[in-house]
Specification:
Layout: H1 3-31, H2 36-70, H3 75-92
Helix pairs in contact: 1-2, 2-3
């Protein structure tokens, strides 16, 4: 694993840890019967954080594909992988 991949992984794990905290907070809000509007605000914040991770991974796959093609990998195979990631990304948005 390269240094940049390790950095990216660390960053993603930190983001996921924050999301776990947000979800725990939302659960607590529901158990404490907080105002629905406040719960929805937190849900939207969590959704945005998840979408950001998805965006980061899409960018990483794009960089990965371009790098592999420049190193001689099969363009069609890399395009298939990238299209699969794009398709999954679009389902989230």
């Amino acid at each position: 694993m390269s240094h940049s991949q390790e950095h990216r992984t660390d960053s993603l794990v930190k983001r996921l840890n924050r999301i776990e905290g947000q979800v725990a907070g939302i659960k607590k809000m529901i158990l404490e019967e907080k105002e629905y509007a406040d719960v929805i605000i937190q849900l939207n914040s969590t959704r945005s954080a998840i979408q950001k991770i998805s965006h980061i991974l899409l960018e990483a796959q794009t960089e990965h594909a371009l790098m592999h093609v420049s190193e001689g990998a099969d363009l069609d195979e890399e395009m298939k992988k990238l299209q699969k990631v794009i398709s999954q990304y679009n389902k989230m948005n």
